[in-house]
Amino acid sequence: QKEVEQNSGPLSVPEGAIASLNCTYSDRGSQSFFWYRQYSGKSPELIMFIYSNGDKEDGRFTAQLNKASQYVSLLIRDSQPSDSATYLCARGRGSTLGRLYFGRGTQLTVWP
Amino acid sequence: EPEVTQTPSHQVTQMGQEVILRCVPISNHLYFYWYRQILGQKVEFLVSFYNNEISEKSEIFDDQFSVERPDGSNFTLKIRSTKLEDSAMYFCASRSDRGDGYTFGSGTRLTVV
Questions:
Q1: Digit-coded pLDDT (tens) for A44-82
Q2: CB of B45 within 8 A of CB of B63?
């Protein structure tokens, strides 16, 4: 089973709040995980990638990975209206250089 | 910042016609991919390409599809006989060998009428 599941939302948070986006996966062979942001009609933009259990922080973004629970999340601190977009979770299997399997995405709206 | 360039940005074609979508990956990247996204659906893998050959392809990538790297910079996706269900955004992507994620191009919106 290759599915990547995301809560479809939409998720709506006020400006300045923490947005929490979640993703589960069923393939235990998954080794690498990616979060992409996609504005309407645009291509996906890489936000973060994570390979190891635990947290990885980059500016306002924190990715969390728990391989035992097959769960990966993205936290966005101090959310801004410009963060309003669809967030795509993707996983890679085995080699980090192979294909990615994408979830359907979670639509986030940050209101002023 | 280096970019993956795709042309055209939008193409309208009649059913049964051949289309070629073009991509210029980032110059020092070695791995190339095509993905597509039907409106409102998830991003789907089509094919990966490395060292001048296909390294993996999905069940979507049937005999109607082909890829080519005709020179040192371009990477193309050809659809021989388009169907209505081929209407989608087609994304080219490339990556280095560092495994730190793809860079996607801006996409080609293909509309088959």
A1: 999 999 988 899 999 999 999 998 899 999 999 999 999
A2: no
Residue A84, pLDDT score: 97
CB A62 within 8 A of CB A74: yes
- Taking an 8 Å cut-off on Cβ atoms, the answer to whether A99 and B95 are in contact is no
Model pLDDT for residues B79-97, shown as the tens digit of each residue: 999 999 999 999 999 988 7
Q: Which residue of A has its CA nearest to B102?
A: A46
Rg (CA), chain A: 13
Do B9 and B23 contact (CB within 8 A), yes or no?
no
| Closest CA–CA distance from residue B77 to any residue of chain A (Å) | 17
Q: Is the alpha carbon torsion for A39, A2, B111, B65 positive or negative?
A: positive
Verify whether the Cβ–Cβ distance B42 to A96 is below 8 Å.
no
